[in-house]
Amino acid sequence: MTLKDKVENALRGVIDPGTNLDIMRMKLVRDLLIDQDGRVCLTFQPSSPVCPMAFKLAYDIKTAVQQTEGVKEVEVKVSGYNRADELMEVLKQSGNP
Fold first, then answer.
1. HEC profile of the chain
2. Which CATH architecture is the domain 3-76 placed in?
């Protein structure tokens, strides 16, 4: 299993409480890039620009990816959300493993 497969499986474990669907099925994660050194970059686009669960989902996404074996660093970008800049700052402050 490749690191990309492991990361995608971890992301399938992140469930949107409003729909009870995983974020991969909902296509809320885009531009998943993983380099050979274990650095992961992805874009999270909440289901609406005012999604009340965006902060929780973004944190759960970052945590799920960080806990994946082989991942050294995670960058989560946020798009299509009214508070995207604020959310990305919170995620940056949460650090990497």
1. CCHHHHHHHHHHCCEECCCCEECCCCCCEEEEEECCCCEEEEEECCCCCCCCCHHHHHHHHHHHHHCCCCCCEEEEEECCCCCHHHHHHHHHHCCCC
2. 2-Layer Sandwich (3.30)
